[in-house]
């Protein structure tokens, strides 16, 4: 289905579809009018493709499973159901879909729809990052930076933050700037820090100016 493939690509490019609904819901609400569709109509289409009959099996298409998981997770065209979101993310992730792996990582990270398990979260974010997902790459950087379910490794954190930004995740610029300001995972360089801070917007730039120019 061309429409669902297009929707998947929109979700895939969202900077942080697992941690905040702001970007994701804005993206879908900007896209739906162009297709003359509503949230509920898209959900109903996904539900038909889900093959969810009496045996409660889920769709074999990893992309559709991931989209449906997102709809359940955020209550898009249907009531929120974290357990079904987790179930569909798991199908997608185990089929090696990078976005599904990222979403499953968030479920384990926060304990949403399943038990909280940072070790499992780390593993799924790692797989997502290795498969090129920009959100998985940034979050894996956070795991290394803050020693979440792994040993603290600033070099690995900086590496994955850079990969995320190079892959198109603008939200990685702030943490890259901080790495330069603090000399974490890279050399201490205020010039580079401010250059990256300028990419983040006024709020962090003002913070960086007030905090680091006085040191």
UniProtKB/TrEMBL annotation:
<protein>
    <submittedName>
        <fullName>5484_t:CDS:1</fullName>
    </submittedName>
</protein>
<dbReference type="InterPro" id="IPR011990">
    <property type="entry name" value="TPR-like_helical_dom_sf"/>
</dbReference>
<comment type="similarity">
    <text>Belongs to the sel-1 family.</text>
</comment>
<dbReference type="Pfam" id="PF08238">
    <property type="entry name" value="Sel1"/>
</dbReference>
<dbReference type="InterPro" id="IPR050767">
    <property type="entry name" value="Sel1_AlgK"/>
</dbReference>
<dbReference type="InterPro" id="IPR006597">
    <property type="entry name" value="Sel1-like"/>
</dbReference>
């Amino acid at each position: 289905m061309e429409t669902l493939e297009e929707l998947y690509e929109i979700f895939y490019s969202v900077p942080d579809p697992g941690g905040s609904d702001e970007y994701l819901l804005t993206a879908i609400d900007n896209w739906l009018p162009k297709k003359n569709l509503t949230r509920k109509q898209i959900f109903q289409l996904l539900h038909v493709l889900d093959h969810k009959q009496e045996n409660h099996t889920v769709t074999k298409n990893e992309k559709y499973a991931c989209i449906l998981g997102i709809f359940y997770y955020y209550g898009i065209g249907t009531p929120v159901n974290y357990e079904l979101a987790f179930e569909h993310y798991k199908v997608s992730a185990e089929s090696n879909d990078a976005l599904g792996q990222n979403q499953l990582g968030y479920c384990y990270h926060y304990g949403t729809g399943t038990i909280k398990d940072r070790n499992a979260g780390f593993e799924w974010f790692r797989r997502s990052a290795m498969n090129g997902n920009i959100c998985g790459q940034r979050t894996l950087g956070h795991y290394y930076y803050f020693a979440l379910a792994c040993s603290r490794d600033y070099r690995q954190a900086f590496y994955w933050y850079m990969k995320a930004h190079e892959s198109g995740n603008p939200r990685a610029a702030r943490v890259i700037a901080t790495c330069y300001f603090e000399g974490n995972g890279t050399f201490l360089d205020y010039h580079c820090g401010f250059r990256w801070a300028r990419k983040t917007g006024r709020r962090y730039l003002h913070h960086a100016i007030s905090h680091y120019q006085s040191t």
